[in-house]
Structures are given as C-alpha cells and as structure tokens.
Amino acid sequence: MDTNLKLLMDFIFGTLPWVTYATFLFGISLKLYTWFSTSPPSRTVPSSISRTPISAESIRLTIGQFIYLLLFQGRFIKPKAKSFVLWLMSFSAHISLFLILFGHLRPIGVWSASWFAWMASEQFLTRDLPFYLGWVVLGGFSLLLVRRVVDRSVRSISGFDDYFLLAILITIFLAGNMMRVSPYIHESFALRISPSIVMQLKETPSLIWLAVHGIAAQVLIMYMPFSKLFHIIASPFTILAYSIRHGRLYGGMKT
Ligand code: HEM
To answer: Which of 224, 153, 223, 189 is nearest to 9 (CA)?
Structure first.
C-alpha cells in the first residue's frame, strides 16, 4: 500500500475513532444531563392508581406503540396515495439500512453467513443482497432529500440538521456502493478499527472510497447525539417513559 494512503488509513481507522467515541459519549452525557435537569418534578402517584399489577391492556398498549414505531405508521398521516408512497419509501429505506448495518457485523465475526445457509447461498447474502440494498437506501434517502427541497411545505419546516443529516447519509451510502462497484484487488484485507475491532474482508475494496466511507460514518456517529437521529437511541426509552407516566404499566385505576 502507498505510504500516504497507509498514513491516511491509520488516521481514519486508528486515531479518529477515539475522537468519535469521545464526542459520542460527550453528546449522550450532555443530552442526559439536559433531560434530567429540565424534567418536571416527579409527582406522587395518586392512591386511586394501582401500582402493582401490570395489566394485559397496558402491555398491549406498549407493544402497540412499538409496532407503530417500527412500521413507521406516523408517516401514514392521511390515507392518501402520497402518504402511502412516502411511507413505503421510508419503510423500505430504513429496513434496508438496518439489514446493511447488520451485514457490517459479519466481517467483524458477530455472525456467519452459514447460519442462514437454509435461506440463501453465501454469495447472495454477502454480495448480491448488500449490493441491491445499498442502492435501495441510496435511492430512498436521495428521494427524501429531493422531496425536502422540492415540496414547499416540507422545505418550510426543514433546517440545517435535516439537510446535513441527509447529505452525510447519502455520502456514506454512495461511498459504500462505490466500494461494491469499483474493482476489487483479489487479496484479503483486515481493516483494524481502534481499539480492537477487526473487519475481515475477503477482497480489498477501493481504499479511497473506504476512506470517504469511514470519515463520513464517523462524522455521523459524532453528530448523532446532537441531531434528530438521536431518536434511534431515545425512542424505546421515550415510549416506556410515556407508558409509565400515563399509568399504563400501573394497571390503570382501582375499581
Ligand atoms: C466506521 C464504520 C464503518 C466501516 C468500517 C464500514 C465498512 C464498509 C465496507 C468495508 C463496505 C464494503 C463491503 C464490501 O465491499 O465487501 C461497506 C459498505 C457499505 N456500508 Fe459501511 N462501514 C461503516 C459504517 C457504515 C454506516 C454507519 C453505514 C450507514 C449509515 C454504512 C453503510 C454502508 C452501505 C450502504 C454499504 C454498501 C452496501 C453494503 O456493502 O452493505 N456503513 N461498509
């Protein structure tokens, strides 16, 4: 490997991750501090509310809220063709993104394609599927960006955060896809990420695109706690807190 490229890779995957972890943890701590220092004083639960039994109804409501969140039903505001298309776009792009991120855990050794041999061939799971999903996410998120720019009502409520997030995500997807379509060197490659993550790739992808991908991915991770993407981490906790606050997990009113 060219010495300058090696230095660049060492910086991106050896040094930068420490800045990424520190910024991410700082952001999360700041968020938690702001939440706790501004949350309203806790009220004592009236004696008319039973604390002990977790009623079937309360569990049903909580599960319902999670399904609502997972299926992106918030996007389905009105039963109109436009909101259905928007829902379909968001849903397929997010599911693809989830599968892609899950796919990233395989070269790290978290799972193996042989576990899913009953479902599809290794070639399909590790090459064809990620390739197609990569273009689905890139297409889906690019359309979301176009919609934000073109649709006047969406544009009027869009800020820097929205555009920056979409731009950084699109850069990550584009660089990821470019790694897939650029010629590989037919030699295995071990990508070491600080402190001790090793991504074992069967072939060496374009290192320039890998560098762009690595920088953009880390910018996203650093920015996450300060952005709207924080909902990914916060949503499960928000739903539970909401359910508890509304007495759903207390089993409702005593009769
Ligand atoms: C520092 C963290 C990351 C590293 C080291 C990394 C590494 C890689 C590598 C090596 C590939 C190409 C795989 C191959 O050609 O065999 C890839 C592809 C890809 N990555 Fe990442 N990635 C990271 C973070 C992310 C993040 C955070 C996202 C999404 C938000 C993402 C989305 C993608 C996409 C869409 C592709 C193309 C489709 C695919 O190969 O799955 N990556 N990544």
So the answer is: 189
Q: Do 220 and 168 contact (CB within 8 A), yes or no?
A: yes
Centre of ligand 1 from the C-alpha of residue 213, in Å: 7
Contact 203, 184 (CB under 8 A): yes
DSSP 46: P
pLDDT at 30 over 60: yes
Question: What residues contact residue 90 under an 8 Å CB cut-off, 6+ apart?
Answer: 72, 75, 140, 144
Task: Enumerate the domain spans of the chain.
Answer: 3-31+53-250
The larger pLDDT score, comparing residue 66 to residue 3, is at 3
Prediction pTM value: 0.84
Distance CA 27, CA 248 (A): 31
> If we measure between CA atoms, which residue out of 70, 66, 62 comes closest to residue 90?
70
pLDDT tens digit string along 230-244? 877 777 777 666 666
Residue 222, C-beta contacts closer than 8 angstroms, at least 6 positions apart: 19, 20, 23, 24, 27
Top mutation candidate among 11, 104, 200 for ligand 1, by most atoms within 8 Å of CB: 104
Backbone angles phi, psi at 131, to 5 degrees: -60, -50
User: Is 3.30.460.80 the CATH classification of the domain at 3-31+53-250?
Assistant: no
- Supply the residue whose CA is at minimum distance from atom 40 of ligand 1: 130
